[in-house]
Amino acid sequence: MLNANRLHRPELTAPLAGGDRKLDALTAPNPRAFPAGGTIVEQGTEHGFVYRLRTGWAGRVRALPDGRAQYLMVFLPGDLFAIKSAFVAAHPDAVVALSDVTVERLEQQRLREAFQTDPEIALRCTWQIVEEERRLHNWVVSLGQGSAEERIAHVLLEFSLRLGPAQGTSRSLEYGMPLTQDQLGNVLGLTSVHVNRVLRRLREDGLVSIRNRVVAIHDPEALERLAEPLRDATLKAKARPELAVG
Amino acid sequence: MLNANRLHRPELTAPLAGGDRKLDALTAPNPRAFPAGGTIVEQGTEHGFVYRLRTGWAGRVRALPDGRAQYLMVFLPGDLFAIKSAFVAAHPDAVVALSDVTVERLEQQRLREAFQTDPEIALRCTWQIVEEERRLHNWVVSLGQGSAEERIAHVLLEFSLRLGPAQGTSRSLEYGMPLTQDQLGNVLGLTSVHVNRVLRRLREDGLVSIRNRVVAIHDPEALERLAEPLRDATLKAKARPELAVG
DNA sequence: CGCCGACTTGAGAAATATCAATCTTCGTGG
DNA sequence: CCACGAAGATTGATATTTCTCAAGTCGGCG
User: Fold this and answer.
1) How far, in Å, CA of B112 to CA of B96, rounded?
2) Min CA distance, A205 vs chain B (Å)?
3) How far, in Å, is the CA of A244 from the C1' of nucleotide D17?
4) With contact defined as beta carbons under 8 Å apart, do B4 and B12 qualify?
5) A88 and B CB contact within 8 Å
6) How far apart are CA B165 and CA B99, in angstroms?
7) What is the C-alpha to C-alpha distance for residues A152 and B54, in angstroms, rounded to an integer?
8) Does residue B144 have a pLDDT over 50?
9) Predicted local confidence at residue A104, as pLDDT
10) Cβ atoms within 10 A of the Cβ of B46, count?
11) What are residue B32's DSSP bridge partners?
12) Cβ(A171)–Cβ(A160) under 8 Å?
């Protein structure tokens, strides 16, 4: 059975972990595997499933008609996606595998029923939706106001926080990160060349380095100082969304 | 009583309009007025209300510790906001009045009850949440990939579309728009100086002009051609979110 | 009248993109 | 085990976009 640790979810405190475990019961027996670069959910299709990422990284990406591309969300193990499709029509953007991944599928119909009868399930799903909005808000702030340096510092720290418990610490100072610099550019709204140059500067300044798909944070304080302006207040206050009592 | 037309919501087809009317019954008797620049919802506070914007423009804005600011959402008449606070803990960002506004307040408690018993209410609220995410996705694409010109063209067209029915056409070629160039910059992630220069170019090229808080679109086709790469597929397909049957 | 906020414009600086070569790594077939 | 090829990373030179700073200008309003 999956648990919060295996799912790498620092935020999943007890009630969320409970909901997460209960999702197992709704999960189709055999997880599906996709190779890096594969398309997990096609653009604009309707489909009867909600997904939970079991291993690997995935991302929602929008392809512009002229060839540009922009990632709209990065999913790490434990994240639910296409969750809103359980409640509304399909999303217009594809979800692709950023590394080799395995995903679990949940039938929309059964999830909807469980959502209405089981508060823990409802909390787990609601948390995902709210968390996703929080990330989008931060993303807008990052793209709108952050310099390349700030954006990169911020995103590397965010991944670190989200992966934290996987390494048994509250923050991973070293973690696997499958994105190419090109993909990182499409996450951050920068060209891969510029991502590369900024990463070099950060490496030369001893803040952080990426080698072999592994991020190593050498000076967490300095990196946080850099990303500080983009840091969202929710994290500072350690606030957690709580289900309002109906 | 409010109706879809007065609320300026092109998207509110019958079932949404029905939910909208039903919200009237949940609305506190006296709408509140705020002057331009006023704070409707303070940053980080808990409050027992959901709001519906009746007249004027408002925006959710994040202030960075170093003085920068970034808007996360622009609300037009008819929009519900702080809606998620009915289901989860408070949002960390303030909502401010971009013009003189009047807002209606809805008690969270009563809205939650109505949400669970009335499908039209549920649809109306769900639509708002999904719509907000759609806008955020487009915003990320715009900030991440759009040039200043594209972003400005795109946002002016978006406002036009959202206000459309107010002028009795499907698209307003002329509409009031209370944002200063400074605020527009904080929406688009640009400085007001640059916003100004780009607007001048667009004006000189005969695409669009802003005078006296009024946007006049002189060449809709050319403006759309400019914004085309940022246009979201949902609009092209005229897809509308539909409540899945539980 | 005179001030204040918003808009406008200019000059120059900084950030980021573009184009074009390498260089490295790594898997794969011979 | 090696050669090769492809994809990603790195770097340089240059162009473009956007910002910064500074100085007006314009229009409404007390």
Assistant:
1) 24
2) 23
3) 47
4) yes
5) yes
6) 20
7) 40
8) yes
9) 97
10) 8
11) B103
12) yes
Per-residue pLDDT reduced to its tens digit, B76-95: 999 999 988 777 776 789 99
pLDDT of the residue at B234? 66
Look at residue B9 in the predicted model and tell me its pLDDT.
Answer: 46
Cα B142 from Cα B146, distance rounded (Å) = 5
Q: Are A49 and A103 in contact (CB under 8 A)?
A: no
Q: What is the pLDDT of residues B148-194, one digit of tens each?
A: 999 999 999 999 999 975 444 556 689 999 999 999 999 999 999 99
Q: How far apart are CA B226 and CA B149, in angstroms?
A: 8
Instruction: Give the pLDDT score at B212.
Output: 92
Average pLDDT on B43-49 reads: 82
pLDDT band at A236, cuts 50/70/90?
low
Supply A129's token pair. Answer: 């939706």
For the record, the structure tokens of B167 come out as: 């002028």
Q: Contacts for B169-176 with beta carbons within 8 Å, 24 or more apart?
A: B170/B10, B171/B220, B172/B217, B173/B216, B173/B217, B173/B220, B174/B214, B174/B215, B174/B216, B174/B217, B175/B214, B175/B215, B176/B213, B176/B214, B176/B215
In chain A, residues 134 through 163 whose Cβ sits under 7 angstroms from any atom of nucleic acid strand C: 147-149
